[in-house]
Amino acid sequence: MLSGLENKNINLDVYVKKIYEKPDLINQYLKGLLSKNETYRYNCFKVLYVVSEKKPNLLYPHWDFFINHLKSNNNYHKMCAVLIIANLISVDSENRFENVFDDFFGNLKSKKTIVPIYVVKSSGKIINSKPYLEGKIIDLLLNIEKIHLGKQIELVKSAVIESFSEFFEHTENKEAIIDFVKKQLDSKSQKTRKTAKVFLDRWGEID
User: Fold this and answer.
1) CATH of domain 59-203
2) pLDDT at residue 197 above 70?
3) How far apart are CA 73 and CA 5, in angstroms?
4) pTM for the structure as a whole
5) Counting beta carbons within 10 angstroms of the beta carbon of residue 132, is it exposed (0 to 12), middle (13 to 18) or buried (19 or more)?
């Protein structure tokens, strides 16, 4: 166990810097993601997530570890994998993501809410890194009501709208997206209605 990571309040920058200085430490953090100690496990994730954001090339060699997490039956493992893989796509020089596209976005079908929401929120990063996947991804997001099997579909749609904001300026699918968002003004979820209004105030017209 890495010293100090069992404590709730840690200085992330200190641990991230240690990985930059000694990348071999990554293997211990990966083991930490499997720890039964919740605080230790979460701290290991937080450190790795920052590394995946700022220096994804350090974690890219461990791609297969995160793919195994993605295919796990454990929703916490799936969540960690989704968030980190989305960051690693920016350095995916071997186009590995294309081989797991269906596994990644297959999580949208879940009856649970958290993992699908993180998949949705990662979509903007993926499209910005691999714009040629935009059509496939947008098609999934626009049809989220037919795909997602959970009861909290309205909250998932709120996440979809937030994701659209990340790439709307550059998309060629503006009309379809605006149409989707306008429909959410009548959502049963107050949060989703508010998210739709904020989006339309910025990007579109409200009839």
Assistant:
1) 1.25.10
2) yes
3) 25
4) 0.93
5) exposed
